[in-house]
Amino acid sequence: MGLLVSSLVIKYKNIENVIVGSGITGLSLAYWIYTLTGQTVLIIDQGKETRASRLNAGFLTSGSLSFYNYLISEFGVKQGKCLWNIAKKNTSNILSLIEDCSFDVDLKKAGSYSFLNYKPKHLPISFSTKNIDGLFNDYEGFYDEDEASFNPSKFNEEFQLFLIQKGIVFKQNFKVDSIDFIKKQYPSARIFDATNSSSLLNGKLK
What we know:
Shape: globular
Number of helices: 4
Strand content: 15-25%
Radius of gyration: 20 Å
């Protein structure tokens, strides 16, 4: 995901959707727009050096227990669980994409155990850890089978090639002076913000 910054004229026509940022978020968004609607998509990005995706150390995870507890406390049990399940579904979708398309990304699928010395409220999956190698006898936690690790740079490259084969258009190392520039070039297109949190454009695309 990256900051969009240059002054050249975008030459691609008949684009129905413009995505700013080509990290995992931008690529995933392009994939689902194409898969569900068949519409044309243009992805614009500054380049791989600015993508937050490369900074996640390659961990594929739904989130931590503290994140789950935050969702419950902030949004209530029903909505909090719904948001947590969305995160888990996203994790599962990425893993399925890697496996179904045979992406060469150094995938290590081992799942993960989360151990803790207290029982969080409304824990989605719980189990007794007694007698597991004689450790954590007084602890509880849960196991997420979809959590894994992979090379984020390789994943991005494989995902991009996959999308290009589907007809998704990419424009990298490209700058614009303002969001209005994109809107002027593509007045009827939907514009999506997939930039990272450090981008000057983050949160400004509607």
